[in-house]
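Q: What residues go here?
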């Protein structure tokens, strides 16, 4: 049964602390079947994330960007980038990933190295994610280097944190050497659209338990309903109603797993006025009733 749940705050920011203040970095070995909804839902974090596909295929989505990663490929997700991962392969996809604070690469924040080499990329609104392919020699070398660091972390080899830090620093340096345009200041034509969509997504995450309409969601971003529909379809491949429903169902599933609150009360807390409608939508999403889901979650 799925047991991972990405907990976020009202703005969609992930709440998990990755590593600690002494070493702000954490490694994860995960299969999509272990996630509560069978996917890594839309979320963002201040940390950078490097994901390597060990088995299967995964689709990585950011705002206005969709990338399908094959086994052996890797992706770097920028700080603050809203993103989602789904399993699109024939087998249960397994990903190895490291989530780390940008300051890990240079030591203290806002020293010269941080200012010169970190800030330009993490503050570039046009940079959301970058794919590394083993078909490109310099990228293959980096993938192999990161894979060795992941292996050292898993076996707790001597100074595995140093190996991880070194591998991440090599990725950063090589990315800058081969893709210098990413470090240039680039006004993004999509930045306004992204800000509007981000505002609506954060509004939904904050108010999903309330009675929401497309008009109200659109009003929060100062746009029309038709523009609201267009932005959601273009960036997230769904309607605002569908996104709201997914958020409500995801929170309901979490409450079913972690509390003994009555199903009807969970429906109400998650914005469903009709328990029968909640059960119908839950069954369609998880292929079982809420009560059965709770029992299997044990």
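A:
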């Amino acid at each position: 049964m799925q047991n991972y749940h990405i907990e976020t705050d009202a703005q969609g920011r992930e709440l998990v602390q990755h590593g600690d203040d002494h070493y702000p970095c954490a490694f994860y070995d995960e299969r999509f079947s272990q996630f509560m909804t069978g996917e890594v839902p839309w979320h963002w974090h201040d940390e950078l994330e490097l994901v390597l596909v060990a088995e299967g295929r995964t689709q990585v989505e950011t705002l206005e960007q969709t990338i399908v990663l094959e086994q052996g490929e890797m992706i770097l997700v920028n700080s603050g980038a809203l993103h989602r991962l789904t399993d699109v392969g024939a087998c249960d996809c397994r990903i190895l990933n490291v989530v780390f604070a940008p300051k890990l690469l240079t030591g203290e924040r806002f020293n010269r190295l941080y200012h010169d080499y970190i800030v330009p990329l993490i503050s570039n609104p046009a940079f959301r994610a970058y794919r590394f392919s083993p078909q490109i020699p310099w990228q293959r070398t980096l993938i192999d280097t990161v894979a060795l660091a992941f292996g050292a972390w898993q076996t707790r080899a001597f100074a595995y944190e140093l190996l991880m830090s070194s591998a991440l620093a090599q990725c950063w340096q090589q990315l800058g050497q081969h893709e210098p345009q990413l470090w240039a200041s680039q006004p993004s034509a999509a930045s306004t659209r992204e800000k509007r969509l981000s505002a609506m997504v954060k509004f939904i995450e904050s108010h999903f338990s309330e009675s929401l309409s497309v008009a109200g969601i659109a009003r929060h971003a100062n746009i029309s309903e038709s523009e609201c529909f267009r932005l959601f379809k273009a960036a997230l491949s769904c309607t605002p109603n569908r996104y709201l429903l997914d958020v409500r169902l995801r929170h309901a599933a979490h409450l079913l797993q972690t509390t003994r609150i009555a199903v009807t009360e969970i429906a109400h807390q998650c914005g469903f006025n009709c328990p029968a409608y909640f059960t119908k939508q839950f069954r369609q999403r998880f292929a079982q009733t809420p009560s059965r889901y709770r029992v299997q979650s044990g």
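A: Context that may help when evaluating the design: The chain has a mean pLDDT of 90. The CA atoms of residues 91 and 236 lie 24 Å apart.
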